[in-house]
Amino acid sequence: MRGAEISALRGDLGADTVEFAHLCDVEPTTVSRWESGASEPSGPAKTLLSVFQWLLQDNSRRAMAIELFRTGARTGGLATVLFSAFNAYFDQRGNNK
């Protein structure tokens, strides 16, 4: 995921740099470095950003993505947000069969 995509994702979620960093379990300067292209996300943060990007691609999942983000940003629960997002993904896949 490139810097412009990360910046757009943060904007789509309505997050400031501090909230976004808290959710990703990184420092705000790390988010700034991602957005400027000086570095790229890795590990759980990379997975989390990919999940949010996927969620936001479809308007039917947009509200869920924003609520997951808000929950994670408040609690700092990266694992909880990932678990909830994957559950939502598999629930949706089951409903589309």
Considering the chains and any ligands shown, give keywords for the structure.
6 helices; mainly alpha; 97 residues
Kindly provide the radius of gyration, computed on alpha-carbon positions and rounded to a whole number of angstroms.
Answer: 13 Å
C-alpha termini separation: 30 Å
- What does the overall shape look like? globular
The average pLDDT score comes to: 82
User: Which band does the percent of strand residues land in?
Assistant: under 5%
Helical percent range? over 70%
Structural class: mainly alpha
| Count of helical regions | 6
Number of extended strands: 0
Secondary-structure element series = HHHHHH
Sheet with most strands: none
Q: Which blocks of ≥5 consecutive residues have pLDDT under 50?
A: none
SSE layout and pairings?
Elements: H1 3-12, H2 17-24, H3 28-36, H4 43-56, H5 59-75, H6 78-95
Mind explaining what this structure looks like?
This protein has 97 residues and is an all-alpha fold. It is built from 6 helices and no strands. Helix 2 crosses helix 5. It is globular, with a radius of gyration of 13 Å. The mean pLDDT is 82.
